[in-house]
Every structure is written in structure tokens, then in C-alpha cells.
Amino acid sequence: MKLIDKEIVYTSLYQKIYQIVFWSFSIFSSAFIIFFIYAMYSFSQAWSTHEYEENTELLKSAAAGSLYIESRVKLPLDAEIIHVSEHRAGPNTAYNLIFKVNDLGIFLEELSNQYPMLNDELVSKRENGNISALPFCEKVNPNDEYDKLFAEKMDQSILVDFCKEQKVLFTQVEDEVEIGKIMVVFPNQKMVWFNSSYWF
What we know:
Layout: E1 2-4, E2 7-9, H1 13-48, E3 50-54, H2 57-71, E4 80-89, E5 92-100, H3 104-114, E6 118-122, H4 145-153, H5 160-163, E7 167-175, E8 179-186, E9 191-198
């Protein structure tokens, strides 16, 4: 190293390599710290975020595909979608689809070929199948921070038949430690409810 016009000039190969390594390490360290802070922020946001959407055009148009992917059950062509929603609570998700079927007999025959149907289950129990049940039938309190999410978007008025205490046909589509999927058939209303929940 020598001084030329009051500037330090590195002449040693070792010194040049040292400078390259030093600045490379500094840049890498800074980039890593920035990435770490961003990753922690994203992780925190993912765990604390609550989102709820219902009856959007996107959810309705994807309902048939979503039902088949999740349960291998085909949505009847003439099915009337009563409610379709998706709730995300941190890393956990719950998908709900409620629809009416004109020819319930054919639908039940196809369903029972894949899954055993159980009788005399009361839909009001809500404990079946390791699922995340939304407050479909409970009074939503708009002053509560959690309920406010549903108070702003959930239309409970269309779920009157769904919320009646009644005997239904019930089947467990899937029941794992972090996965719960059920399908409930309301014979009197020719209505079907599918729920798919994923837990972390």
C-alpha cells in the first residue's frame, strides 16, 4: 500500500483480496439481516391475519372444482349454491359450501358409494369431524373484534333452514390430525353442507 496524491492505493494482492472479501461479507450480511426482518414480519402477519370472504363470484365459479378436489364428489349441474365461503385465520383455513339438490336420491346414491352415511346426527352439535365451524347460527356480536369480521360480510339470513335443529345424514370425508372434512345432508330441505378445514 502506498500514498499517491493523498489517496491510499493498495498494491498488495493480499490487500485487494481482503477488500473484496470484506465488502462481499458486508453486503451479504446486510442482505441477510434485511431478509430476516422481512421474513419475521411476513411470518407474524400470516399468523395474525384474519380474512373472510363469502359468495363472491370467484368462489361461486370455483365451487364445483373445489368440491371435487377436496372430496371427489361432483357438484350436480342443477345445484343451487346457497352459501360458499373461505375463512383464513393465520395458517388455518376453513372452506364451506352449502347447496340445494333437486334429485337428492341420485346424489345420495353417488355419495354413499364413496363414503358411509350415518343417521341421526344433529347438525347443531358442530363437534363432528375436527372442523372449524363458523358462527353460521350463533348471534354475531359486531363489537367483538373476531365477530366483527363476520358481522360485516356474513349473511346469516339465508341460513335459516341450515340452522334448524334436525336429523341429518352425516359422513366423514377425511379426519386427520390437521385436516377435517365432513359432508352433511339435510333430507327435508334437499340441502348439502361440505366443510373442509386445515389446521397448523
